[in-house]
Amino acid sequence: MLNIAIAGLGTVGAGVVRLLRQNADLIAARAGQQIMVRAVCARDKNKQRDCDVSGIKWVDDAPQLAGLPGIDAVVELIGGADGIARDLAVTALGNGKPLITANKALIAAQGVALAKLAEQNNVPLFFEAAVAGGIPVLKALREGLAANSISAVRGILNGTCNFILTRMREDRVDFATALHEAQQNGYAEADPAADIDGFDAANKLAILAALAFGVEPDFAFVRTEGIRRITPLDLAFADELGCRVKLLGIARMGDTGLEQSVGPALVPMTSPLSQVEGALNAVQLQTSHTGHIMLQGPGAGSDATASAVVADLIDLARGNRAPAFGVPVAQLTKVNPGPAHKSRYYVRLQVMDKPGVGADIMTILRDEGLSMETILQRAQSATESVPVVLTVYEADAEAMRRALDKIARLATVVEKPCLLRIED
Ligand code: HSE
User: Fold this and answer.
1) Residue among 154, 142, 110 at smallest CA distance from 311
2) Is the model's pLDDT at 383 over the cut of 70?
3) What is the pLDDT of residues 281-319, one digit of tens each?
């Protein structure tokens, strides 16, 4: 029997307690032993929650869980890169207890130190639920694709942002309403800024990159931008261009280093990533010997995330002792950051509808060696400004950025332009 302690009984913790009960027999059969929750800890003992913890020992101070006699493994579902979550993780691993966590912020920031501690104490550290919720992508990288070298990882890694962008496009609800719906459905982080400003996806990308490329996870090297500046107009223009707007995480090994970025991008509807809607997540892996692999599924929510946590518990019960990042910590290398890759671009401008405006913009593009592919203008008005969208053929990111700075300074451009990659 594997006796476990769980810290945190929020959306994910409650889901884990329920799943272990609901599927107890098949989990025991697959794990080779029963998995029993023996102790729990959460902020408020008297809170109404979606799971039954009667008969389970209650502890007020999370790190104490790691020292309880008879506990074989600790599950950390508190969240946060430091504070109690970190204290619990360090105490558990330091005490020789295996640690399972869904905490991407903790792993992205402290993963190397924790993996080192796990190795020193000869215990596993698993965190499948930290990336893309229920999708077993870390296991795919660590196990099923372990013989491949990986050249690129691209993914929709934040369910809340994907849900918001989908709801804004499909039903034209505003940003705040869509965010509220995501929160009601249990997808959003406690502080939704982590979702909508891209940091949640950046943490996940840093972890994926670590497993894919054998580097130390370091989200400081992930160029990060969220979806606050995306308007319903962008979603409508994207539609006209045969694209969807997605918050994409990209990690790509180039000739001079590893590019890591999170940001909104247009994805042509011919790409399977464009069809990933609502709170779903997806990860595409470009592999040396297995071609392109795409995994898609629920990236957030109680049941799906619990599924990934319990899968780690089953691995632990079976005796899986794989290194946390696929190789021993000593073999991980530091990130050598590489430049942004070339791509097509979407530029939305708000301009005065006057003769010569287009010519000024074209001149700037020409001077930077950029070539325009499409132009869309929505309305005509002699007095007011109008939205104009350009798409630009494959361009160097720096040249595009320089051109955009010059365009933004034109007197006839009346708002800050919106620049998005088109990810083919
Ligand atoms: N807030 C996250 C999301 C939950 O929306 O994807 C899972 O990490």
Assistant:
1) 142
2) no
3) 999 999 999 999 999 999 988 999 999 999 999 999 999
User: Which residues are annotated as catalytic?
Assistant: 204
Q: What is the pTM of this model?
A: 0.95
Is ligand 1 within 6 A of the CB of residue 133?
Answer: yes
Is residue 133 predicted with pLDDT exceeding 80?
yes
Q: How many CB atoms lie within 10 A of CB 387?
A: 19
Band (pLDDT 50/70/90 cuts) for residue 380 is: low
What is the per-residue pLDDT across 341-366, written as a single tens digit (0 to 9) for each? 999 999 999 999 888 888 999 999 99
What ligand 1 atom has the least distance to the C-alpha of 201?
6
Ligand 1 centre and the CA of 158: distance in Å?
5
Among 106, 160, 303, 305, say which to mutate for ligand 1: greatest number of ligand atoms within 8 Å of CB. Answer: 160
β-bridge pairing 2-7 and 35-41: parallel
The reply to whether ligand 1 has any atom less than 6 angstroms from the CB of 198 is no
Residue 268 has pLDDT above 80, yes or no: yes
Evaluated on CA atoms 288, 290, 296, 302, the torsion sign reads: negative
What does the pLDDT read at residue 305? Answer: 95
Residue 392 CA to ligand 1 centre (angstroms): 32
Residue 153 CA to residue 204 CA, distance in Å, equals: 11
